[in-house]
Design a protein that fits this description.
mainly alpha, 69% helix
């Protein structure tokens, strides 16, 4: 017989822990910090190479660079090459 109250999470379960950790990390505005670091490195690289792009081109290239950097970070996690 199914539980009429729906599935119940056990306090302290992995799903609960994952949710709490995500909320704590997000409250530290980690996404904003990562974005700012990548954006600064991108802007510095454009200046170093003396590259002039229109605003739409800059924005499109930045989006591509951010995606590649984040994909690389995920790959490192999947490969286990990041040590804790």
């Amino acid at each position: 017989m199914l539980n009429p109250f729906g599935p119940q999470q056990v306090p302290g379960s992995y799903i609960d822990l994952r949710k709490r950790m995500l909320q704590r990390v997000q409250s530290m505005k980690i996404n904003d910090q990562i974005f700012e670091v990548i954006q600064k490195a991108y802007e510095d690289a454009l200046k170093t190479e003396n590259i002039l792009l229109s605003r739409p081109e800059r924005k499109r290239l930045l989006a591509q660079i951010i995606k590649l950097v984040l994909d690389d970070m995920i790959k490192k996690l999947d490969d286990g090459s990041v040590s804790a």
